[in-house]
Amino acid sequence: MLAASLLLTTSCNQKIKVTEGIQVDDSEGNPIDVASATEPGKVCVDIALPGPQGQTVRVRDYIGKNKLVLIDFWASWCGPCMREMPNVVKAYDLYHGKGLEIVGVSLDKDKDSWVQAIELTGQKWPQMSDLKGWDCQGAQFYNIQSIPANVLVNEHGIIIARDLRGEDLINTIAAQLQ
User: Fold this and answer.
1) What is the pLDDT of residue 35?
2) Phi, psi values for residue 61, rounded to 5°
3) For site-directed labelling of 97, which of 17, 148, 152, 173 has its Cα 20 to 30 A away?
4) 168 CB contacts (<8 Å, ≥6 apart)?
């Protein structure tokens, strides 16, 4: 069933809107504009959501412990996400031992589909989801308008790139880890 739904899905460009009332603060507690706060050169916004086993997963727990953190926004029902996932897995396999960590943020609503897709695609990295689909709080914090999407963060928590795909993902990570 999961495989059939992956083949039928051709686009994951549904627009989401940042819900009014979502407050994102900088490290000093000052409110910030989400759209401009997640551009390259800015300090990344922390996300804390449940993991597959119910534990809280936080992006900030991986920053500083790794040279790079890729925050990867995806969903099990998203055909383009599933087609891009082999590149993400390849990046992890090539560079995890050299300082790359990936944190997956799923826009799924169904926990079983989410967990099956993690296993099916070989994602070995930390995962999180509030199971709210396009209303995912983490996606709203990063102004995610379509998936797959990602944000590459350095060890100091500075965003260095967004929306890297395929060889561009691999080459950018390789260049940053030299």
Assistant:
1) 53
2) -70, -15
3) 148
4) none
Calpha distance 79→137 (Å, rounded): 22
What proportion of the chain, given as a percentage, has pLDDT over 90? Answer: 76
Q: Which two tokens stand for residue 135?
A: 């209303």
State the virtual CA torsion across 51, 55, 59, 63 in degrees, nearest 10: -130
Extended beta strands in 7-131, E state: 48-50, 56-58, 68-74, 100-106, 127-128
| pLDDT < 50 positions in the chain | 1-11, 15-23, 27
Closest CA to 103 of 137, 159, 58: 58
pLDDT digits (tens, 9 = 90+) for 75-114: 999 999 999 999 999 999 999 999 999 999 999 999 999 9
Domains and CATH numbers, the chain: 24-176 (3.40.30.10)
Mean pLDDT estimate for the chain: 86
18, amino acid identity: V
Residue 130 · residue 116 · CB < 8 Å: no
Q: Per the structure block, which two tokens stand in for 153?
A: 């963060």
**Type of residue numbered 138:** G
32: Cα separation from own chain's centroid? 20
pLDDT at 153: 97
